[in-house]
């Protein structure tokens, strides 16, 4: 008997990632869709041969639904994910886990109380290039990590959102909360924690609304660019830039500088991972193409979530991992707003 999955929120992330990956997974029998806009739920149910729930409560009360993907907008995650866990469902929550630490902790408390699995969809950990890079860094064949730089930028969520317009919720402060820092930045913060086996401890940043306007032609309420300086607990220092205004080409590259060489990740069109040693030797890996907004490949997130539920394993991205990344992003925004260096709380 296969698994029955519920998806809350039927926007682009559900349509392009969650639903097709559940549909392709051999252990999933049925998907139930809920969206406050019934037409959207019905459209996805038709597309993926699923059914529709008329309310969140109806979906969560269904004892045959074992797994929930929370693909709602950011401000609702703590409501839906916590409720689903307390109703005995395993939950995959989209990132960021929440907009505040207190709300994120409500989800973690619900997970502890329920004993069910909670995974957060920080999908950068799942790419082959990042997994290989972590293996190389961990082996210390290039010596210790000294410094790093990373970026994540594309032409903006209005190109990706379900209605392909400037009215996207990503531009609204009460729903998006954290702008490009919470949309793209949080992914790379989590990735740095994963790759370096370390946590960012101090940050400074500049942010701005450089170009994006809403449907009324006014500058949006959240940052469309943020440039950051980062220091980790183990003393590595590096930089990060996140942008919704990389017009022409997406950039999701990371460079790690070690004692004996350099790791370049998604820096070359041909090779997803390049190792350049101190004496100039190059090792180049063709592993896969990364998911971009224009090129949707299997992220591996859904398969990993189902695997951890089926085999009773710890999720690859835990609630605590997600809170650690959220703390850094909130620290970056505070640093940018106050023009000072912010130390990230470890509590």
From TrEMBL:
> What domain of life?
Bacteria
Q: Which InterPro entries match?
A: Gfo/Idh/MocA-like_OxRdtase_N (IPR000683), Gfo/Idh/MocA_Oxidoreductase (IPR052515), GFO_IDH_MocA-like_dom (IPR055170), NAD(P)-bd_dom_sf (IPR036291)
Q: For this protein, what is any one GO molecular function term?
A: nucleotide binding
- Coiled-coil ranges from the UniProt annotation: none
Where is each Gfo/Idh/MocA-like oxidoreductase N-terminal domain found? Answer: 3-122
* SUPFAM superfamilies the UniProt entry points to: Glyceraldehyde-3-phosphate dehydrogenase-like, C-terminal domain, NAD(P)-binding Rossmann-fold domains
Q: Which residues form the GFO/IDH/MocA-like oxidoreductase domain?
A: 130-263
Pfam families, alphabetized: GFO_IDH_MocA (PF01408), GFO_IDH_MocA_C3 (PF22725)
What is the recorded name of this protein?
Gfo/Idh/MocA family oxidoreductase
Q: Which organism is it from?
A: Psychrobacillus glaciei
């Amino acid at each position: 008997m296969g698994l029955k999955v519920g998806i809350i929120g039927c926007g682009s992330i559900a349509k392009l990632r969650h639903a097709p990956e559940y549909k392709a997974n051999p252990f999933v029998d049925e998907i139930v869709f809920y969206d406050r806009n019934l037409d959207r739920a019905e459209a996805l149910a038709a597309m993926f041969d699923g059914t529709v729930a008329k309310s969140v409560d109806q979906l969560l009360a269904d004892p045959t639904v074992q797994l929930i993907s929370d693909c709602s907008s950011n401000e609702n995650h703590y409501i839906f994910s916590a409720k689903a866990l307390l109703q005995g469902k395993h939950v995959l929550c989209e990132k960021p886990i929440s907009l505040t630490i207190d709300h994120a902790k409500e989800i973690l408390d619900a997970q502890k109380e329920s004993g069910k699995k909670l995974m957060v969809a920080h999908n950068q950990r799942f790419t082959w290039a990042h997994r290989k890079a972590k293996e190389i860094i961990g082996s210390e064949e290039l010596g210790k990590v000294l410094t790093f730089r990373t970026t994540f930028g594309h032409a903006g969520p209005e190109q990706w959102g379900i209605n392909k317009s400037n009215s996207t919720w990503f531009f609204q402060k009460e729903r998006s909360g954290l702008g490009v820092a919470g949309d793209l930045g949080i992914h790379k913060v989590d990735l740095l924690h994963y790759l370096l086996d370390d946590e960012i401890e101090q940050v400074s940043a500049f942010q701005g609304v450089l170009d994006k306007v809403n449907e009324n032609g006014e500058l949006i309420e959240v940052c469309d660019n943020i440039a950051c300086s980062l220091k980790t607990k183990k003393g590595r220092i590096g930089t990060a830039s996140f942008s919704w205004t990389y017009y022409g080409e997406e950039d999701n590259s990371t460079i790690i500088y070690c004692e004996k060489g350099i790791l370049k990740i998604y820096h070359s069109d041909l090779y997803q991972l390049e190792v350049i040693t101190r004496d100039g030797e190059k090792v180049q890996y063709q592993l896969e193409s990364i998911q971009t907004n224009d090129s949707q490949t299997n992220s591996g997130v859904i398969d990993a979530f189902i695997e951890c539920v089926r085999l009773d394993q710890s999720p690859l991205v835990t609630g605590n991992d997600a809170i650690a990344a959220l703390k850094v992003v909130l620290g970056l925004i505070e640093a940018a707003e106050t023009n000072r260096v912010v130390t990230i709380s470890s509590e």
